[in-house]
Each structure stands twice: as C-alpha cells, then as structure tokens.
Amino acid sequence: MARVDWDPDQYEEGRSGTFETMPKGVYMSMILDSEVKETSQKTGKYFEFTFQVLHGEFKGRKLWARLNVHNQSADAQRIGREQYNNLCIKAGVPGCKKTEQLHNKKVGVIVTVGKNNRQEPTNEVKGFVEYVKPGADEDPEPAAPARPAAAGKGQQRPAAQAKGAADDFDDDIPF
Hints:
By secondary structure, the chain is of the alpha+beta class. Helices cover 13% and strands 29% of the residues. The chain contains 2 helices and 5 strands, in the order βββαββα. A hairpin with an 8-residue loop joins strand 2 and strand 3. The chain is globular. The C terminus is likely disordered.
C-alpha cells in the first residue's frame, strides 16, 4: 500500500485525460523510449515506442506506437516487423538490432484518428517518414540529442511531401 505524504487539498485536479485528439497528419517527433510488452492474451509480444512531438501546436505531446513482432498471425507479425524496419530506416538506423539505438532519434510520425474500445476518438500511429526540419515560419530547431546521429541517413523528404504522407496510410488495417 502506498501512503500519500502531502495534503491533497493543496493541489488542483490536474489535466489528466483532458488532451484533445490531434488531427490526422505527420508530426516531427523524437523517439523517447521503447519497451517489449506481452500481448493481452499472452500469445505474442510487441514493441511499444514513445514519441514526443517537437514542433507546432502539439509540441511536447506524446504518441505511442505498438508494433507486433511476435504474433500467432503470420500477417500481423510480418506487418509489425516491416513497420519496425521502416522506423529504423526513417530514423537513420537501418538494420537496428536493439530498440535502444533508436532512442533520441528524430522521425516523422504518421498519425490518424481512430476509436478506442469505448468508441472515443484516439490517435493511432500508422507509419513513419524521415524527419524534416521546420521552416523559418515554424518552431526553431530543438537542441541536438546527446548522442550523435548515425551516418548514412540518406536524403530527407521535402516538407510538402511529408505533410501529405498520411493520406497514403488511410486504410482500415488496425496496427
């Protein structure tokens, strides 16, 4: 049992659960964390990545992606592993063998709006694009991560292309 060692009356209710759903689009983000988790039925495993939006109206917001990497369904497993490979490539770490190598890497996150099990709108990560620096009229570039970026990142996608990329992933496949 945990003990509360402060006076709860000195604090307001807080903002938990008050975030509105972000609109469909591509959000330039940084990968903060990754975990391996077991599926709810204990029949497989997935990688859960945490992203933080770096620019614009939703700067600071977090997003999560779950990629099935071990699943009874061969198709679900193939899709999850392909998504992982895509994330590695777009983050500049092709062939990444440890998810920790992706931490602090920048990547564009393709986000759609779906519904959770209570039929409430929720954001869903559908894919990834290469990071694009903001233009002069957008937020300034954040400080570089503590670790240097990997070599061989390749060319970056123009911002106009990246912003329309979410349309390419507007399908009914739930991943």
